[in-house]
Fold this sequence. Notes:
By secondary structure, the protein is mostly helical. 73% of the residues lie in helices and 0% in strands. It has helices at residues 7-10, 15-43, 47-60, 67-77, 81-92.
Amino acid sequence: MASGRSPSVKAQGSTEPAQSSLKRAVRKPMQQLVAAAKSAARTDKNPHVRLSALGVLAKYLPQHSEISSVIQDVAQNDPEESIRLEAKRLVAAPTP
């Protein structure tokens, strides 16, 4: 680094390995978050937690098509009418 440049500037032409590593580092926690939200939306005893989980799932719906079946399940089976209605709204909403 005698030139005074930072390593990121020096390696300008080789950003793919760094981007790939970043995607892998982010993917696992995101998958864990989605899995936890899917479980909470269906089974948590607290209706506020289930509703919050639906909000999380809605954010990831475009990237994870299997989330749609979870939201549909909640829309049909949640014991709280307000949560069923929110899930139905999410199912009917167009995805970006």
